[in-house]
Design goal:
Layout (H helix, E strand, L loop, with lengths): L11 H14 L4 H5 L6 H18 L3 H8 L3 H17 L1 H14 L17
Helix pairs in contact: 1-3, 1-4, 1-6, 3-4, 3-5, 3-6, 4-5, 5-6
């Protein structure tokens, strides 16, 4: 079924703004998140959540998000599924992510719509 609405393209600047807001709110440095070394669990989770929220808020393509985080789009797919899996199992994580998403949506230039990503059945 075809969508009844279309999403406006989002600029890479907006993608970066949302991504950096998420990372800052999670208490991790941007340098750690985009670094290539082995990361500790807190950095990994911050990266995954920031990618998830960036995707939900901006509706950016996986390639755009990958470019922002200096990662391949296939890693983004994996991280989106991982975060969604935690949300499905742990309601308190869902609440925390929604609060973080609300804070990041206040940034200038962020679209006021939120893309709804349907889960696979």
């Amino acid at each position: 079924m075809k969508s009844s609405y279309s999403l406006r393209p989002v600029s890479q600047k907006v993608v970066m703004s949302v991504a950096k807001c998420c990372v800052k709110e999670l208490g991790v440095s941007w340098r750690e998140v985009v670094g290539t070394g082995r990361s500790h669990q807190g950095v990994l989770w911050a990266r995954q959540v920031a990618q998830y929220i960036t995707h939900r808020i901006t509706g950016a393509t996986l390639s755009q998000i990958g470019a922002a985080f200096d990662r391949d789009h296939t890693g983004i797919i994996s991280n989106l599924k991982r975060v969604q899996g935690f949300i499905d199992v742990y309601p308190e994580i869902s609440t925390e992510i929604e609060e973080l998403k609300s804070r990041c949506m206040q940034l200038p230039g962020v679209p006021k719509h939120v893309r709804i990503i349907k889960k696979a059945a």
